[in-house]
Design goal:
Protein name: Alpha-catulin
Subcellular location: Cytoplasm
Low-confidence stretches: 1-14, 107-121, 266-271, 516-537, 706-756
Number of helices: 24
Number of domains: 4
Strand content: under 5%
Structural class: mainly alpha
Organism: Iconisemion striatum
Radius of gyration: 31 Å
Pfam families: Vinculin (PF01044)
Strand order of the largest sheet: 1-2
Largest sheet: 2 strands, antiparallel
Main location: cytoplasm
Length: 756
């Protein structure tokens, strides 16, 4: 074979892969092609090895043919992609044929008399064919991914149309009918966007998507009660303002989702993330440390500019009316110290350059260390101020006194009382908004910065909505729907405070090095429904004697939480659903442990029962992830594990029912607390037993899986495309997603021959 059957190709190989499913689909193919190319470097091979290589090459070609059949079926259903998909499929088929031809060793074997034959002299041809195959397969996958984006856009458009209808309804009967349709469309949209969020590679986009989806989730209930209130009181201006704000926020969230999946930016999203103090400090410190290796990596003017920009951002702390005099003076003193140390560094730097030194002098090394130390001290101080203020605010506002006052004044028809409580709530809102801004500065990761911004925007928006809902109730104190509407908005506020507490824990974890960037973002809002059934429950605190009796149980829960964290950190794939849900459970269990000590963010028994209910729901989601994982196992492995899963499901259901069961009296409440913590402990014990087993099996199956496909992603996409009915079509039952089960077997045979 003197020349490649492929020839040259100008096919675009610089495609950006934005989703994990596409990336994971390509990894096995890259591995297989690399193996074939590497065999080109070994001119002498046994007949058995040559036969195995031949089978692999043929299997690749057959698999590519089936893969192309799926791509062509997708193209026939989506005319806008037909030309591009057709070209990509043509190139993939051509590359597959080339690889089959290059690995066809039959003629070469017959022409050699020696038992050791020399083949595969055309390494260049194999490399070209491999590049073309990878490029074209990637193009097919990326084009198919556009179908997923199209589905999300289509779903969003359906939601928008129904949303417009809801906004214009004039009767309750019409509203109920349209809202039912709206609910179904929102469920579909939630599934599509949830899958997309989990599939995104970019952590910032994932955080933005999670924030937008959280807004939609919360606003759906707000939209229901606000619309009903407006229909009941059509002439009430505050009810109309309340309703309009919900519809506007939902539309903005829907647009943000589309901006993320299409990578477009609407007018409202034109701004970029502001540079945080954390990033400024990191960049400045990096510049300083670079001088050790290269004295000419930047100029003194650049360093001075970086420092002044950093110091300027600390004004968000020093100019705040809520920063104490002592804190302000400490921050200013540290800024001045950084300036002085930087000036000494610049002086030593200039002397080293004058002496034509090739590397940092001893004096300069000392100056670098002092500058890095002072900038680290400044970062620690800013972190302490922001986190301390947030913790204090959460303690002060944990009793929700302004909300209670607003509800009471509204129910009494007391407009003056509503106005007075509104001023208190507005001041509280301003404090929380500013605190979120400070947390954003020191959060430590871009996804957490996005979550801080989301929290800031949520407080900023919900505050006025609560006030307008309270005004409506004050004007119509006997209206049950107006009272329910105010209750829903107050629950959203309380929920956001809980989410802020979780966000605070995440920021501390990152600062102390306990978590990396791939920490699941527990700070994102949870549905208000968790507390809906506990409205009439009385919130009480444990006394010292009760805390003592709870101490042993709480300690066991803390140890289990720590053990679960340790086990999930051993997983290579930190984005796996099992890992994410297990980390969430560990975080919640730790909060319950702190409650038994009279510490942490769960202040009352009502807080604990809400946490128990959320924990049980997270546990059920983990059960679902376990079941999905177990579907890959053989019956022998599955039988033992499924017993544990059923046990876990039962515990979750018991914990959920117990948390929802109302109790009266101190003794009954204490017994419910004891039961909730015991069941949580038992639940975590089962989770701890399952995680290491799953990790071991996950590694085993990951190492064995060398097929071309990503079955879950492609099976979902094939649902939207016509099935190819002949034998060359893809059958998920027989072909492991892409019809390359035989390739997996051939690769195993090839590896076995190599090891011998």
């Amino acid at each position: 074979m003197a020349s490649s059957p492929c020839g040259n190709s100008n096919f675009d190989s610089g495609l950006e892969i934005k989703t994990r499913s596409v990336e994971q689909t390509l990894i096995p193919l890259v591995s297989q092609i690399t193996t074939l190319i590497n065999h080109k470097d070994k001119p002498k091979k046994s007949e058995r090895t040559l036969a195995a290589i031949h089978r692999v090459g043929q299997a690749v070609n057959v698999a590519v043919g089936r893969f192309v059949a799926v791509g062509e079926a997708i193209a026939s259903e989506n005319q806008e992609l037909k030309d591009e998909m057709g070209q990509a499929c043509f190139e993939a088929r051509r590359a597959g044929d080339a690889i089959a031809q290059l690995t066809d060793v039959g003629s070469a074997m017959q022409s050699q008399s020696d038992s050791q034959v020399s083949v595969f002299s055309d390494r260049t041809g194999m490399v070209k064919a491999a590049r073309l195959l990878l490029s074209s397969v990637t193009k097919v996958l990326v084009l198919a991914d556009r179908i997923v984006i199209k589905q999300i856009i289509t779903s969003r458009n359906k939601v928008l149309i129904t949303l417009d209808k809801l906004e214009r309804v004039s009767t309750f009967q019409e509203f109920v009918q349209i809202f039912s349709q709206f609910g179904n469309e929102m469920v579909e949209f939630a599934h599509l966007t949830g899958d997309r969020q989990n599939d995104l590679k970019d952590e910032k986009k994932k955080a933005r998507m999670a924030a937008a989806r959280a807004v939609l989730e919360k606003c759906t209930m707000m939209l229901l009660t606000a619309s009903k209130t407006c229909l009941r009181h059509p002439d009430c201006e505050s009810a109309r303002i309340n309703k309009d704000a919900v519809f506007h926020r939902m539309r903005c969230a829907l647009e943000q989702v589309i901006d993320i999946v299409t990578e477009a930016r609407s007018c409202g999203e034109s701004k970029v993330l502001p540079t945080s103090i954390y990033n400024s400090i990191k960049d400045f410190k990096s510049s300083v440390e670079c001088l050790r290796e290269n004295l000419y990596s930047l100029t003194p003017q650049n360093m001075a500019s970086q420092l002044e920009s950093l110091v300027e951002r600390t004004e968000d702390f020093t100019d705040s009316a809520y920063t104490s005099h002592e804190q302000r003076q400490a921050i200013l003193a540290l800024c001045q110290l950084v300036r002085q140390d930087t000036q000494q560094l610049v002086h030593a730097w200039a002397e080293a350059q004058s002496a034509h030194a090739k590397e940092a002098t001893e004096e300069m090394e000392v100056a670098v260390l002092k500058t890095c130390q002072s900038i680290s001290d400044l970062r620690r101080k800013l972190h302490k101020v922001a986190v301390g203020r947030a913790s204090d605010l959460l303690k002060v506002h944990g009793e929700h006194l302004p909300l209670r006052a607003l509800k009471a004044a509204g129910a009494e028809g007391n407009l003056e009382g509503v106005a007075e409580s509104s001023r208190t709530l507005t001041e509280q809102k301003e404090q929380l908004v500013e605190t979120c801004r400070l947390l954003c500065h020191i959060s430590g990761t871009e996804p957490l910065e996005i979550t801080c911004i989301h929290a800031e925007e949520t407080f900023h928006v919900i505050g006025p909505q609560i006030i307008s809902a309270a005004q409506t109730l004050a004007l119509h104190p006997s209206s049950k729907i107006a009272k329910e509407n105010l209750e829903v908005f107050c629950e959203a506020w309380e929920s956001q405070l809980c989410d802020m507490a979780l966000l605070l824990k995440e920021i501390n974890d990152v600062f102390e090095g306990r978590r990396d960037d791939k920490r699941p973002y527990l700070s994102l809002p949870r549905p208000g429904k968790h507390s809906a059934n506990l409205k009439t429950a009385k919130a009480v605190k444990l006394d010292a004697e009760e805390q003592t009796s709870m101490a042993k149980l709480g300690l066991e829960l803390r140890l289990l939480s720590s053990d679960v964290d340790s086990e999930v950190e051993k997983w290579e794939e930190q984005e796996h659903d099992i890992v994410r849900h297990s980390q969430s459970l560990a975080s919640m269990a730790y909060s319950m442990y702190l409650f038994t000590r009279g510490e942490g963010l769960l202040k009352t028994t009502l807080d604990l029962f809400r946490q128990a209910e959320v924990l049980s729901e997270e546990g059920l989601q983990l059960c679902s992830s376990f079941r999905t994982f177990f579907s890959q196992l053989v019956d022998e492995e599955k039988s033992v594990l499924m017993t544990q899963i059923e046990k876990l499901v039962t515990l979750c259901q018991q914990l959920q029912m117990g948390a929802k069961t109302p109790v009266q009296g101190k003794t009954a409440t204490f017994q419910k607390v004891d039961s909730s913590i015991q069941m949580s402990r038992n639940l975590m014990t089962v989770v701890l037993s399952l995680i290491p087993i799953c990790n071991k099996l996950h590694k085993k199956y990951k190492s064995e899986r060398t097929s071309l496909g990503s079955p879950q992603d492609w099976r979902e996409r094939q649902d939207a495309s016509p099935r190819v009915k002949d034998e060359a079509s893809v059958s998920s039952k027989n072909t492991n997603g892409f019809g390359v089960k035989s390739m997996e077997q051939h690769m195993a045979a090839l590896n076995l021959l190599e090891s011998k």
